[in-house]
């Protein structure tokens, strides 16, 4: 399926998106979705958009309002606050969710460190995910709680 351009970071690195896939195979084995039934994975696949990101692509920018969050399917991303590297995230991690929940500017910049495959959720699909899937909601709020208690 041909990719469509969805973003370019400040260094010109591109991110490409694909439409949601009907099958959930690309999400199988991602730790964020451990324990989801096949039907649940298929619903997640219908809500998400698969996005590829090249190394250096900026997934989120500190201080900007968020309009998407991601679950990392493959690859690694660096998290930066005020230019300082504070963490690396990999498969199964969710990024950008806090801005969609509290409608506030992003707390950190997240940059692809490797080639990445991401499950992207716009605000509507993210809130549908939380409303329809208690497991997803529980994992998102556990992630938020862990980040806020650091």
TrEMBL record:
Top-level taxon: Bacteria
Location of the Cyclic nucleotide-binding domain: 32-147
One Pfam family it belongs to: cNMP_binding
InterPro entries per UniProt: cAMP-dep_PK_reg_su-like, cNMP-bd_dom, cNMP-bd_dom_sf, RmlC-like_jellyroll
SUPFAM superfamilies linked: cAMP-binding domain-like
GO CC entries: cAMP-dependent protein kinase complex; cytosol
Gene3D superfamilies for the chain: Jelly Rolls
One GO MF term attached to the UniProt entry: protein kinase A catalytic subunit binding
Name assigned to this protein: Cyclic nucleotide-binding domain-containing protein
